[in-house]
Design a protein that fits this description.
Oligomer: single chain
Helix content: 55-70%
Shape: globular
CATH architecture: Orthogonal Bundle
Strand order of the largest sheet: 1-2
Distance between the termini: 48 Å
Strand content: under 5%
Number of strands: 2
Number of domains: 1
Order of helices and strands: HHEEHHH
Length: about 120
């Protein structure tokens, strides 16, 4: 039987893997963990963080509020506390729009090469 290396099957991600997903430093993830109680990775031996898909989703929300929309930490914390589902929906829409934009830019480049 072949080993399935599909990352979707992974239960836990290291802090390095999560930092790479968002192109941020590990120290920023540790800081956000202190500032946002929603981000609470499990800690294994020697305090090694283990992030679940749910933890990563919380980081995605914080990333969107702080890095994409430019909110201060306190404002982002308040936005999450008041309207978590609304923030999640906005984040999802923004990510879909970014993917569409990237696809359109790729098509435009390909069409430009055909001329």
């Amino acid at each position: 039987m072949a080993l399935n290396t599909n990352k979707e099957l992974k239960l836990f991600y290291s802090i390095g893997e999560v930092a790479e997903m968002f192109d941020v430093k590990e120290t920023l993830l540790r800081f956000w963990e202190k500032e946002f109680p929603q981000i609470a990775p499990k800690k294994a031996n020697r305090n090694i963080r283990q992030y679940t898909k749910e933890d990563i989703e919380q980081i995605r929300l914080v990333y969107n509020l702080v890095k994409v929309r430019g909110l201060k930490i306190a404002a982002a914390r308040e936005a999450l506390k008041k309207n978590k589902s609304g923030v999640a929906q906005q984040t999802e829409v923004i990510e879909k729009l970014r993917a569409i934009k990237a696809e359109l830019q790729s098509i435009r480049r390909e069409l430009g090469e055909l001329d």
